[in-house]
Design a protein that fits this description.
By secondary structure, the protein is of the alpha/beta class. The protein folds into two domains: about 5-65 and about 320-430, Alpha-Beta Complex (Aspartate Aminotransferase, domain 1), CATH 3.90.1150; about 70-320, Aspartate Aminotransferase, domain 2, CATH 3.40.640. It has 15 helices and 14 strands. The chain has helices at about 5-15, 70-85, 90-105, 115-130, 155-160, 170-175, 185-195, 220-230, 250-255, 280-285, 305-320, 320-340, 370, 375-390, 410-425; strands spanning about 40, 45-50, 55, 110-115, 135-140, 180, 200-205, 235-240, 260-265, 275-280, 350, 355-360, 390, 400. Helix 3 runs parallel beside helix 11 (about 305-320), helix 12 (about 320-340) runs parallel beside helix 15 and helix 14 (about 375-390) crosses helix 15. The protein is globular, with a radius of gyration of 21 Å. Bound molecules: pyridoxal-5'-phosphate (PLP). The site of pyridoxal-5'-phosphate has 15 residues, from helix 4.
Length: about 425
Amino acid sequence: MNNTKSKELFNEGQKHLVGAVNSPVRAFNSVGGKPLFMQRAEGSKIYDVDGNEYIDMVLSYGPMILGHGNEKVIEAVQKQVCTGFTFGASTEDEITLAGMVCDTFPGMDKVRFVNSGTEAVLSAIRLARAYTGKNHILKFAGCYHGHSDALLVAAGSGLATLSIPGSAGVPKEAVQNTLIAEYNDIDSVKKHIEECDDIAAVFIEPIAGNMGVVKPTDEFIKELRTITKAAGILLVIDEVMTGFRSKFGGAQELLGIEADITCLGKVVGGGFPVGAYGARNEIMEMVSPLGAMYQAGTLSGNPVAMAAGISTLSELKTQNPYDKFNAQAATIEKALLAAASANGIELTVNRFGSMINPFFTSKTVTNFEEAQECNTEQFTKFFWGLIENGIYIPPSQFEAWFLCSVLSEEDMSKIINAINNAMKKVNETVTA
Ligand SMILES: *Cc1c(COP(=O)(O)O)cnc(C)c1O
């Protein structure tokens, strides 16, 4: 495989960009290589600057659920670009997208659009504190909720990959009100609730995707809803990754629970920077200009991003790719397990709708600790094997692979073939 141009750009990029990237996982640090520089994408495929073609299973870490270059989305975006980029004033499209979102999330009467998932979650922290008058927040080890200070502890993928506990530059005062519990361990939550009567909210990824895909047990998630409600603690369900991914709507409905505050991002912006947080009226009425909680944004509700969001959600509703996602993900799971077994490799596969993750371990993976026991050396070899076979997956054991709605039968054969070839490499000892 020719990577000449990517390597050149990587060297050049390091001069004025930090590690030649604008987000750390893109640096390929955990797979010990140099990042690929991408040039264009179309449908299910992405092309690097050396002209190599890959089936894209990163999909910009989730947003590109329709694949790249959906005609309806392009049309809507082009139309808006010619009409005006941003006005710093309200537009009709914001009302339309708000209506679409609130109609699909039963617990949301009102929504506020922001510019990223991080911004949605950090606003949700402020809102939960404003509404409850309490200060502590509780999160789960391995869940990632964006890079705001208060939630940047035990935060999954990017941090797990780099093996740094939290981050430099986060004062201990910023996390002293953050409590950590274990995913799928309700007693670890109960303990905090018993010990602390100042908890404003519990934050959770309803399906964790940032320690690899980890599902909550039915018991755990239902009990979490019950005990938070009983204690007057808000349940903030971070659907930035899961929103519109596994059904039209969120994971909440599939799991049979309802959030007090829901956070969205990724798919809701159709590839443009959009985040959102929403809740029932009495909570959202705390937010300025109706209430005393301040939160603002120069580009929030940006017209081009709103057009992309509306057209993406409309297309998703029309296409209804969710059954296809389940079937394709099941096929990929089967292929992964068969290839591993044929090569004597221990593998566990977790999946939920269009999110899927092979873990190089013989054990089940139900929380962050178990995820971290994976053999990341094996993952690294598998990763490069897939790249060589034209499949682009996230460069980390702890990131979900995503499916898009335009994945064809031919793409599926290619993916399965690549899995078989790459799995053979996992046991090879690399001689430099
Ligand atoms: C990606 C993600 C975020 C952060 O969103 P950004 O748009 O990257 O700021 C927050 N929560 C979850 C669950 C995510 O997957």
